[in-house]
Amino acid sequence: MAKLEIINLHVEIEGKEILKGVNLSVNSGEVHAIMGPNGTGKSTLASALMGHPKYEVTAGEAYLDGENILDMEVDERARAGLFLAMQYPAEVPGVTNSDFMRQAVRATSGKDIGLFEFAVSYEKQVEELKMRPDLAHRYLNEGFSGGERKRNEILQLKVLKPKFAILDEIDSGLDVDALKIVGENVSSLVNSEFGCILITHYQRILDHIKPTNVHIMIDGKIVLSGGQELIEKIDQNGYLWIKDELGIDY
Ligand code: ADP
Ligand code: MG
Ligand code: MG
């Protein structure tokens, strides 16, 4: 079993405090949904955990299996078992998708996986995600539609097999069919060796990936945690009632 533990995390962007003390503990086998209004710091949490240079951690700690990931370089975090799907995945012209993935496997696992072995596993994942088979030979994300990029992130996740993934709005830009495929593929990964944090603005994706825990982030803090009953409540009533109930005003 693996454990990701975030303690009192404070993060600033360009001198402005965005995260104001986030506490979150995720075990492998669990799916934690983080929901909340736009601009409350959900993506900031993802970027800070992955070590984006623009995000300055001013206080707090984050441990993956007892190791302080905040002390690590970005590539070390990936090697320690953290995976981040970006909200806006970048294009990398000149590097084919399969080359990139094989390189990434090599970099994170430290093992040189044979071309044939890699190709077999890669093709299988492409098929399971119902992606276009020519995708392997295309340049990374170049000319990919929004939905194809999202699926490609899940492909990376399946190929890299990290301990924890932070998936930030993987549902944006996906049509209902793609949403189902992506949701089922992520769900199938959750086991005693893998857990995930699912950041989402809407509840749609949560029809396909049932979270074990649901957290509401407002103004840089997790203000409410519970189970799936919270999803329905937010779907029906939005977020304003939480502010009222907890006496948050801003
Ligand atoms: P969410 O993902 O919950 O919608 P974000 O984490 O993206 O929220 O943003 C939280 C706050 O931080 C917002 O006020 C946003 O404008 C600000 N912010 C996010 N990224 C940057 C950045 N790169 N530079 C300056 N401000 C930023
Ligand atoms: Mg946003
Ligand atoms: Mg966001």
UniProtKB/TrEMBL annotation:
Q: Which Pfam families match?
A: ABC_tran
Which InterPro entries does the record associate with it? AAA+_ATPase, ABC_transporter-like_ATP-bd, FeS-cluster_ATPase_SufC, P-loop_NTPase
Question: Could you tell me which residue ranges the ABC transporter domain spans?
Answer: 4-244
UniProt-listed PROSITE patterns: ABC_TRANSPORTER_2
What the entry lists under SUPFAM superfamilies is as follows: P-loop containing nucleoside triphosphate hydrolases (SSF52540)
What are the alphabetically sorted keywords of the record? ATP-binding, Nucleotide-binding
Q: Which domain of life is it from?
A: Bacteria
Q: Which CDD domains match?
A: ABC_FeS_Assembly
**What transmembrane ranges does the database entry give?**
none
What is a single molecular function from GO for this protein? Answer: ATP hydrolysis activity
NCBIfam families cross-referenced by the UniProt entry: sufC (TIGR01978)
- Give the family from UniProt: Belongs to the ABC transporter superfamily. Ycf16 family.
The protein, known as: Fe-S cluster assembly ATPase SufC
Organism equals Peloplasma aerotolerans
